[in-house]
Amino acid sequence: MSDFGQLVTLNHARLQAAAEISGAPSRKVRTRLDRIAALGVGGGEAAGLVTVSTTRCEPPEALKVVHAESRFTRLQKNVGIAGKVHQLETQARGYQVLFVTLTYRPGIDWDPAHMTSYVDRVRNHYRWATGDKLRYVWVAETQERGAVHYHIIFWVKKSYFMPKADKRGWWPHGSTKTEVARLSGGSVVYLMSYIKKHSSKEGLPNGCRVYGCGGHSDSGRALRRWVNYPAFVQARASASCRWHRAVGGGWTAPDGSHWPAEWAVSAIGQGYTRVLRVRTYPPTGIQPSGPFSWFKNSASVAVA
To answer: Of the candidates 59, 81, 107, which is a domain's last residue?
Structure first.
């Protein structure tokens, strides 16, 4: 029997034993047993289905998702699109890019309210000075001594002067450094370079967010939302389409139709999850390289 067949058979045995011990298996256990039986291994048959041995056919596609790697990929994707949207919305509009670093001095412990308070003070001052909303993206990381520090990018009007946060009392917890970017196009690359220094939240205090952003327009938030859709949803949704996660799994389309997920969890281990492809939706003819909008029944890519 293939490795896949052994994995499912062992999972079937575990669930069957749990069902026998409890006497009345839960709905969740019954559902998993039915799914395994439908795959044709484990000795069970689902109603109306024919059992097919895995030795005579290709097993379903399986993947091992390492949690740390998955978090790192999502972090890169979300920080990248958040910065790129700001970059696109402010280019050629009289904006400049500022790099700010916030550092804790020895003896000061991290607190989640510190970053919130700092951003609120900058936002209020910027709105008072310009009447504009504050656009920013930040990333947290740990120094060699274990202390948290932040790297922030602000997209602000060229007429705005950013006060030094430590001198102004906006960051009384340590030192700050403020620089003007020479090339605004390299701002996202700058922030991504710090993301590469860690592949997960390892080293950060419990409750410490890895990144944050704000100031996006409605269309910018739509673009950020779109990049987190699974591929089969992306091929069926423009940036303006709002899909929602469905209760119990899968997705709900704007018209209310339910689209079950293409993958299902088969096993959970220490730091990883194994998933199996349980269905594949037919191609739509659209292979988007980024968020797009519908124009005359055709797709126009907005962000590559």
So the answer is: 59
Expressed as residue numbers, the domain containing 266 is 231-301
Residue where a domain terminates, one of 59, 77, 101: 59
| b/e 20-48 (16+ beta carbons within 10 angstroms → b) | eeeeebeeebeebbebbbbbbbbebeeee
Closest by CA position to 225, among listed 247, 201, 241: 241
Q: Which token pair is 266?
A: 């088969």
How far is the C-alpha of 286 from the C-alpha of 299, rounded, in Å? 7
Q: What are phi and psi of 42, to 5 degrees?
A: 90, -5
* pTM, rounded to two decimals: 0.71
Write the pLDDT tens digit of every residue in 67-90.
888 888 888 888 888 988 998 888
Nearest to 123, CA basis, from 37, 212, 33, 203: 212
**pLDDT of 252-274, one tens digit each?**
999 999 999 999 998 898 888 99
